[in-house]
Amino acid sequence: MPATPDRPADQLRAAAERRTTWPTAAPLQQAADLRRAAGDPLLANWLDATANALAWLAPYRDNEPGYGMWEAALAVARQFLGTTQCGECRDTGACNGGPCPLLTAEEAREPSADRRDRYAAAMALRDGHPEWPVRYEDDEQDYRRRADAVMAVADAEQASLRAEAEGLDEALRGAISASEKDGARLRAELAVAAPPAPADRAAEVEDLRAELDKLIRWHKEDGAQAVKAATTIKRLRAERAELSRQLDCLRGDMRDMETSLREQDGEFERIRRAAGEAAAGAHHPTEAHPPSVEYIAEVLELDGAWEYLGAHADPAVATRRRASITRRHPDAETRTVRKTTTYIVESDTVVSGVTP
Questions:
Q1: Which of 58, 117, 233, 297 could serve as 24's disulfide partner, Cβ 3.0–4.6 Å?
Q2: 206, 290, 302 from 213: Cα distances, Å
Q3: Beta bridge partners of 310
Q4: Are 203 and 57 a contacting pair, CB within 8 Å?
Q5: In angstroms, rounded to a whole number, what is the distance separating the alpha carbons of residues 77 and 46?
Q6: What single DSSP character describes residue 355?
Q7: Helix or strand or coil: residue 284?
Q8: How far is residue 79's CA from residue 89's CA, in Å, rounded to a whole number?
Q9: pTM score, two decimals?
Q10: How many CB atoms lie within 10 A of CB 25?
């Protein structure tokens, strides 16, 4: 596609036309309005385009994709808005409970005695002394000495942070100055509108566009990874629920097996007792035993044969055995068979035909 002098500006203008509604984009959009009103549409469009592309993931953390570009754009916006905010405390002036490293020495300075007492009172409260000063003077002096040690460490850390912030501020001012110079040069080149832009400028714009496309692609890939992770978590939860259900089925089967074994032992004992009674009653022709009824649970196997599951005088036992099979194998076919045993007194003539 041939490159034209208006193509970079057109791209920025098109990217800035549809503004994002993310609250984090507000500083960049306000600065863009100021620069557009001041006759600097190129920088205004760049601020809007950066907000549209990156504000939806702000605030960033150090070393994340987009961190450098977002911080640079935010610094430029603050410069034009006339505001300076700390990345940690914004405009509250309280960084981890201490002075903000972006405050001046006069702003950060506070009475030493009052500060020592606040530190000492906090430590005393932590040790279980709700009132300050504490009851004993020795304890009070000990808390103040400990507060002096803590203040010394905090002051050293704050001094280091202020020095680092000053260095970063100086670097940002240099970057802003260079950006303003580049903006002025670009505006002059666009105002000429006669010969096409130099090849190196077109290549630089193409590199910037490729970098922006790469950042946008990274963010889309991160979103796809998040969706994939959510799908995996959902699948694992479903598998865990299924394993839990199967475990419950196995526990139910174990209980049914134990119940069945106990019932079989009782049934064997009843049969032995009935056999003994039948043997004893053989000498009394006029006595007979009442018929016994058993309910047998069976399941149809793949070969077409009915498999014996157990027998009991209580039909509810057969029902439970069939339910246990159906719970594990919903498509299995089961049935209950009633078995009736009658006891008939033989005549005096034995089966062999010999009269006793």
A1: 58
A2: 10, 92, 62
A3: 297
A4: no
A5: 11
A6: -
A7: coil
A8: 18
A9: 0.26
A10: 24
